[in-house]
Amino acid sequence: MKRWKALLLCGVMLCLGTAGYAWHSRQTDAPTAPQHVIRVVLWDYGTVTYDKRMVEAFEQENPDVRVEVISYPPTYYNSSLEALLDSGERVDVIYVNQLPELVGLYARDIPLPLDELVERDGIDLSVYPDTGVLRQDGRLMALPYRQDKFVLYYNIDLFDEAGIPYPEEGMTWDAFRETGKQLTDRLGKGRFGVSLLKKEEHMCRYMLDAPPDWSKDDFSKLRPGLELWRALEQDGSIPRLTDSDTQQFSQRMFETGAFGMFVHGSWYMNFLMADRKAGRFNFRWGVVSKPRWTDGAAPVNDAWVTPVCINRNSGEQEAAWRFVKFVSGPEGARILAEELVIPAYHSAGTDAALARTARENGIDPAVCLEGFAPPQVAPDAQGRQILDALCTGYGRALLGLDGIGESIDAMQRERARILHSP
Q: How far apart are CA 407 and CA 392, in angstroms?
C-alpha cells in the first residue's frame, strides 16, 4: 500500500513538473519585455489622435522600446517643461513648442547635437523645410516633425443659410471684412461673421502678407491689421474683446457653429476632422488660404516648424534617436498625413497621402501643400524681448487701452531701448 502511494505521488509530481515546464516554455517563447524605456514630453497627448498612433506604431516596430509619455496642456507647456527639466526627472525626447524655445533649450545645454547620427544613418535633410533654423553654432539640434501655417476656416452651413458665396482663394482682408458684416447682418442675434483668437504673437504675423523681421521692420505695418480688428468690432462682426476676452482664447469656439469665418493654424484641421467624426458638431466646414492685403498676391506663410530633440543627458540616446527618426521620417509623415496634419517630411508618397486626406474632407490639397515661405530663424534673447514688447503694445491696442498710433510709437521706442541696451 505504501509502495502504491509512493508511485502515485511520483506520478502526480511528474505531471505537475511537465505542466510547469510547458508553462515556462510558453513564457520563454512569448515576446520579451522591452529592454529600453524612453520618456517623451509633449503637449495635447490626451486631446489629439495622431501622437498616440505614432507611439503605438513606433512600439510595434521597435518591440524592445517602451515609450512613457509626459503631456501638458499647450498653454502651459513651456513653463511646465522648464519645471520638469529643473526637477531633474529623466527626459529623453522633447517636442519643442516653437523655435524660440529651442534657443532657450540650447542656452541650457539640453539638446544633443544630431550631426553625427544624421551622417551615420544617411538621413537626407533635403526632404525637410530649411533645417538651418534648427542649428545653433552650426550644429543641428533637432529634426522637424510638423509644419503649420495660417488658413481661413468657414462654416458652409452658415454661408448657405445667409445666401453668401463661400470664401475663395485670393480673398483680401477688405473682402473678409465685408463678408463678415454681411454674414452677421443676415444670421441674426447671437451669431457672428468672424471669430479670431486674441493671440498677439499669431495676429502680428498672419495679418501680414510677408514674414516680418521685427528687429528692423517698421511697426507701422501693423496698423492695417489693428484697424481691421477695430472695424470688425464696430461692424458687430466679431464679439468685442471687452465682452468676451476669455472666450476668445478657445480655438474650439468655431465648433459652436455660431461663427462664419475663423483664421487659425492649419493644425486645427485635425481637430475639426476628428471632432466632426466624433459627433461633437454637425455643420460642414471648408478651408482656404488666409486672406491677404494685396489683391492677386500669392499666399505666403512662413512655416511654423515643430522640432523634436534629444536630451543630451539621456541614458537612452540610441533608443531616443530611433524614436526621433521614426516620428520625423516617412513612417511618422504617413500617420500625420492620414490625420490631416502637415508633416515636415515631404516625399511624393507622403504628399500624395496628405492630398488624399484633404480631398476626402473637401479641401483643396494646395492649401496643405503650397504657399509656404522658408521658416524664420528663431529670435535671440534680444529679439525675444522685442517680440514681447510688440505683443504687449499690440494687445493694448486691441483692447482699446491705447490708440493705434500711440501703441505703434511705444513699440518703436521700446525696441530702440532694447537694441541700445548694454
A: 9
Contacts of 357 (CB under 8 A, 6+ apart): 337, 338, 339, 340
List the Cα angle 346/347/351 in 5-degree steps: 75
Backbone angles phi, psi at 374, to 5 degrees: -60, 145
Which region among 2-6, 108-112, 155-159, 389-393 has the lowest average model confidence (pLDDT)? 2-6
pTM of the model: 0.87
Report the Cα 198 to chain-centroid distance in Å.
Answer: 17
- Helix 404-419 with 223-235: angle, nearest 10 deg: 150
Q: What is the pLDDT of residues 255-309, one digit of tens each?
A: 999 999 999 999 999 999 999 999 999 999 999 999 999 887 776 676 788 999 9
Q: Which residue has the cell 459652436?
A: 256
Cβ atoms within 10 Å of 131's Cβ, excluding its own: 21
Residue 96 to residue 73: CA distance in whole angstroms: 13
Dist CA 414 CA 394 (whole Å): 13
Label each residue of the chain as H, E or C.
Answer: CHHHHHHHHHHHHHHHHHHHHHHHHHHHHCCCCCCEEEEEEEECCCCCCHHHHHHHHHHHHCCCEEEEEEEECHHHHHHHHHHHHHHCCCCCEEECCCHHHHHHHHHCCCECCCHHHHHHCCCCHHHCCCHHHHEECCEECCEEEEEECEEEEEEHHHHHHHCCCCCCCCCEHHHHHHHHHHHHHHHCCCCEEEEECCCHHHHHHHCCCCCCCCCCCCHHHHHHHHHHHHHHHHHCCCCCHHHHCCHHHCHHHHHHCCEEEEEEECCHHHHHHHHHHCCCCCCCEEEEECCECCCCCCCCEECEEEEEEEECCCCCHHHHHHHHHHHHCHHHHHHHHHCCCCECCCCHHHHHHHHHHHHHCCCCHHHHHCCEECCCCCCCHHHHHHHHHHHHHHHHHHCCCCCHHHHHHHHHHHHHHHHCCC
Its sign, for the CA torsion 137, 141, 143, 145, is negative
Return the pLDDT at 244.
Answer: 56
pLDDT in tens, 360-373: 999 999 999 988 87
Residue 158's contacts (CB-CB under 8 Å, 6 or more residues apart) are: 183, 187, 191, 257, 259, 260, 283
User: In angstroms, what CA-CA distances link 178 with 160, 242, 367?
Assistant: 17, 23, 23
d(CA 230, CA 113): 46
